[in-house]
Sequence to fold (119 residues):
Amino acid sequence: QVQLQESGPGLANPSQTLSLTCSVSGDSITTNKRYWSWIRQPPGKGLEWIAGINYNGITYYNPSLKSRASISRDTSKNQFTLQLTSGTPEDTAKYYCARGDGALVPNYWGPGTQVTVSS
Fold:
């Protein structure tokens, strides 16, 4: 069974680049038809999809975050990473990585990691 585990900075200063990594076990990020995403939930708000990358390495972005977000993968480590530049307190959220089958809609989620941007 697939397992996803997020890791991130925990606490970051404003203007810093936030870097989060999702480590995948029980599946390969290059398995056919797999789509891998980053999603976040700010405190008291709903879920926001940030970016995705598919089994071929094709990337997808939320237009509202595209200018600051970059998703990439390391197939040798079976990981994918999100970088979010110019962090602000509005980026404070619980960040999740997730897997979709045949689409970006996730059906497997990691437990999430809290990121707080504050001076």
Observations:
- The chain has no helices and eleven strands.
- The mean pLDDT is 97.
